[in-house]
DNA sequence: CCCGTGCGGTC
DNA sequence: AGACCGCACGG
């Protein structure tokens, strides 16, 4: 019997014929946690298991030319105060086992798992080898954590040189033969592949079946990177939808991204075109209508970014749909609190205070287009749905509203975007005021006085904006 | 306070 | 894609 076999080998002459049979019936049921687990543990041969996966995202693959080395792959469950590394464990019987040598290499994400041209660099990676080799004594410690494993990417033009090197090292865990497909290798993802050679007291050697980790994705590639929502300029809008929202996010691909609104089994997409994706880091979209148009209370739903190609999602942020109140008696009810907003849910008597959009500290009541604009203005005045509708009938106002598109001046950084937003706010606000000036004063005063006097803070806000505009 | 290192922005 | 650079952080 050959002493070096690429597959799961049991040495029957060590008196474990039955375990050999069993192993052949269920070769790699390493994840089994069932009731027969103990039995299997006793009977099966040693096996290699990944007990801590590598963190799949968040690390940039580094070029050799970047000098300082490529950092360390963390464990999937690693946290700031409890750091972990990718870890393997030798499970099963190890009586008579002298030592184990584990070789880690990179393989392609998809089957067949070919040797990957990218390199592993770090503590146990011989210089220029691109692989990692450790020797472990399973009797002392069955598991081994790989601290300081970095991924160093090779340039495309060095791709075949690198593969050639791997061949000369005899690294081809899944016997793919280095054959073809040199060009279509995905350079933005890899898997760790662990091969384990066992050396027994009697001199015999076995190789365990190679095991692979979950994929690891290059952080720099927007096609695979993590999705993150940083901020929305508003977190509220009516259940009718069409609220214009500005989202700041990590880099996205404009042709491969969607915004999902979700609650329970309901879901709908935020509406935007590719041209509404600004420099990959901001999206201007309109909220979809909520499924139920007749809600009487605020409804909190989740908003996520989702990459279409791999269905990857960001962490959710919550967005509140506010009711549209059509009850004329309900809306006649006057606000009882100071600082009521001109929002339809206020006129319906609910109590929640809208959160300040956190990236507009200077001008919390950002104007945008459509009914959202009305919802936000004037803060501190209590008007109700009837008045909103009356205001909306005024042609001057309609013009003001429809004229409020945001100029998308190319900015070099996000602060420039904020400047744009602020400018736009001021312009729109000023237009709005001018147009309000055309409204019959008596008409307007009636509308306002019938409800509540503007608050002092609000007047400050108006004054401030006006001053800026005049300068 | 300096330096090596990790990290991220940008060209 | 590949390289370069600067900042922040920890020793």
UniProtKB/TrEMBL annotation:
Keywords: Activator, Biological rhythms, Nucleus, Transcription, Transcription regulation
Keyword presence, Transcription regulation: yes
Protein's GO biological process: canonical NF-kappaB signal transduction; cellular response to stress; inflammatory response; innate immune response; lymphocyte differentiation; nervous system development; non-canonical NF-kappaB signal transduction; positive regulation of transcription by RNA polymerase II
Domain RHD: 43-223
Domain of life: Eukaryota
A Pfam family assignment: RHD_dimer
Recorded GO MF terms: DNA-binding transcription factor activity, RNA polymerase II-specific; RNA polymerase II cis-regulatory region sequence-specific DNA binding
Subcellular location: Nucleus
Keyword Nucleus on entry: yes
GO CC terms in record: cytosol; nucleus
UniProt-listed PANTHER family: NUCLEAR FACTOR NF-KAPPA-B PROTEIN, TRANSCRIPTION FACTOR RELB
Protein name: Transcription factor RelB isoform X2
Gene expressing this chain: relb
